[in-house]
Write a structure and sequence with these properties.
- The complex is a heterodimer.
- By secondary structure, chain A is mainly β.
- Chain A has no helices and eight strands.
- In chain B, strand 9 and strand 10 form a beta hairpin.
- Helix content of chain B is about 35%, strand content about 30%.
- The mean pLDDT of chain B is about 95.
- Chain B is of the alpha+beta class.
- The N and C termini of chain B lie far apart (about 50 Å).
- Chain B has an eight-stranded antiparallel sheet with strand order 13-12-9-10-11-14-21-19. A five-stranded parallel sheet of chain B has the order 3-2-1-4-5, sandwiched between helices. Chain B has a three-stranded antiparallel sheet with strand order 7-6-8.
- Chain B contains 15 helices and 22 strands.
- The chains are: A mainly beta, B alpha+beta.
- Chains A and B meet through loops of A and strand 16 of B.
Chain lengths: ~70, ~450
């Protein structure tokens, strides 16, 4: 099994986490929503797999390129 | 007499308010969050007070904290700017109860205009057309047909519980409604767990026109109109004044309608009345009233050579402006481009970060309203507005040309901005020929 890291495209804060560890996801599913400058930016699963690890929780402040979720496939 | 004002806002509008206060010899108290400690407004104000952490709910929305700072610093009035607490009746009441002047209309006006249905009712009572449609939900196809026939086609039928552009369909005649009504109701039930539908007149080609009003205890003044039809997801990006596509007849009736609404609402202070203008029929319909200073107020100020923030403060001091409407004349043409920290090449994704290089255009007729500077870091907590570039010239064509030059001189490095987007609009043939509608961004 391989693992892929989903990174933040921009800095902001975590508004909502929509998946939990161990959950099966499909490419395109929204994993979590970043809030930055009053805008909501959904972060999608890049491919099918299982949520291996959530690196962030709601209200966390995040930086650009920070790892948010690991997905194993 | 107002001698000291607390500014319950941030960013460019806080800077804008401080400038007028300085001109009027009024002292300023700037409240700020942790994220705005190094902001320009904090540098410019006479007194500054930290009111909490970055997230606005813990700082700029904290009514109790702001009122207690106002009392401690013995201010006479609070200017709420736009957004945040500016249209919250609760805040206006809290100011009044603390013996402070809220620079804006009375709390009751904020309540009336804050409720869309109530505002529409006021407009209707003032004899101003509102967008026609069903008063509430419709229950069957014949119900829909009856209303559609009375308001005229095309109509749009929407799911009451719908949103995001889903659960709606446009109809051009009664046969279409009869044929598709049931499937639309079923779809609404499936998608939104609610089969309720409502019907509205559908306008295919519209412009957003708004009228600037200034009301003191004696008179209602009209300071022209603005055309704000270049929008993205209902966010205005470019505003102009005057709306040259209106005929004199339409403009006169738009101003009359606005006067009647202000009279009906017993409006006091500066405000903006927004209308839909249907390009197909040259008719306008009341949309809503904004009971505060607007982001785009500078285009009006440039054309009328008038300080709207000063008018707000004078009216709040119960001063009578004693102006003559016939002498309030609009001259020339103004365009405003909102420069946002967003990436137009990546679906306007926000672009927080630090400005590494900044150069403003230096041209006659160009006004810049901004709070940013070289080395400024844009906080993640607030909106993306960096600057408003306002260009004034003799005509629309000349104003567009000046805007092109201003945008080419503007340099902001370190972050992505909407500058390139504005440059492409200024070069667009439908924009330049003034032949466009609110769908402009979906059509280019």
């Amino acid at each position: 099994m391989e693992s892929i890291e989903v990174k933040a495209e921009i800095s902001g804060s975590i508004w909502k986490v929509l998946v939990s560890e161990g959950e099966q996801v499909t490419a395109g599913d929204t994993l979590l929503i970043i809030e930055s400058m009053k805008m909501e930016i959904p972060v999608e699963a890049p491919q099918d797999g299982i949520v291996e690890h959530l690196h962030v929780k709601e209200t966390d402040t995040i930086e650009e390129e920070q790892v948010l979720v690991s997905i194993k496939y | 007499m107002i001698k000291k004002i607390l500014i319950a806002n941030r960013g460019e509008i806080a800077v804008r308010i401080i400038k007028t206060c300085q001109k009027m010899g009024i002292k300023t108290v700037q409240v700020y969050s942790d994220a705005d400690e190094k902001s320009l407004a904090v540098q410019l104000a006479d007194e500054t007070v930290n009111i909490g952490p970055g997230p606005a709910l813990q700082s700029y929305f904290n009514i109790q904290k702001i009122i207690s700072v106002a009392k401690e610093h013995v201010v006479d009035a609070i200017h709420p700017g736009y957004g945040f607490l500016s249209e919250k009746a609760e805040f206006a009441v809290a100011c009044r109860d603390a013996g402070l002047v809220f620079i804006g209309p009375d709390p009751q006006t904020l309540i009336d205009m804050g409720d869309k249905a109530r505002a529409k009712l006021i407009a209707q009572q003032a004899g101003v057309p509102i967008s026609p449609g069903s008063a509430g939900e419709i229950h069957h196809a014949e119900n829909a047909v009856e209303i559609a026939n009375s308001i005229g086609y095309p109509v749009i039928i929407k799911a009451s519980a719908g949103g995001g552009g889903r659960g709606m369909r446009i109809f051009h005649n009664e046969d279409e409604i009869r044929k598709s009504y049931e499937s639309l109701a079923t779809e609404a039930l499936r998608s939104f767990a609610n089969a309720a539908l409502y019907i509205e007149k559908y306008f295919e080609k519209i412009r957003h026109i708004e009228v600037q009003v200034v009301c003191d205890e004696d008179a209602i003044y009209i300071l022209g109109e603005r055309d704000c039809s270049i929008q993205r997801k209902n966010q205005k990006l470019i505003e102009e004044s005057p709306a040259v596509l209106l005929t004199e007849d339409v403009r006169t009736s738009l101003y009359d309608a606005s006067r009647r609404i202000c009279a009906e609402a017993k409006y006091l202070n500066v405000g903006t009345i927004e209308y839909i203008y249907d390009l197909n029929t040259a008719k306008f319909y009341f949309l809503e009233m904004n009971t505060r200073i607007q982001v785009e107020h500078p285009v009006t100020e440039m054309c009328f050579n008038f300080d709207l923030v000063e008018a707000q403060i004078r009216i709040a001091s119960r001063e009578k402006l004693a102006l003559e409407q016939t002498k309030l004349l609009s001259r020339g043409y103004a365009i405003e481009c909102r420069i946002n920290a967003e990436n137009p090449e990546k679906k306007f994704l926000p672009s927080p970060g630090t400005i590494t290089k900044l150069k403003w255009p230096d041209l006659t007729g160009v006004r810049i309203d901004s709070h940013v500077f070289e080395g400024y870091t844009i906080p993640i907590f607030y909106d993306s507005l960096l600057a408003k570039v306002i260009c004034w010239a003799g005509s629309r064509d000349e104003a567009i040309e000046l805007m092109k030059r201003a945008l080419s001189e503007l340099q902001i490095e370190g972050i992505k901005t909407t500058c390139s987007f504005h440059e492409s609009v200024m070069n667009d043939s439908s924009f330049c020929s003034n032949q466009y509608d609110t769908q402009f961004l979906t059509s280019i």
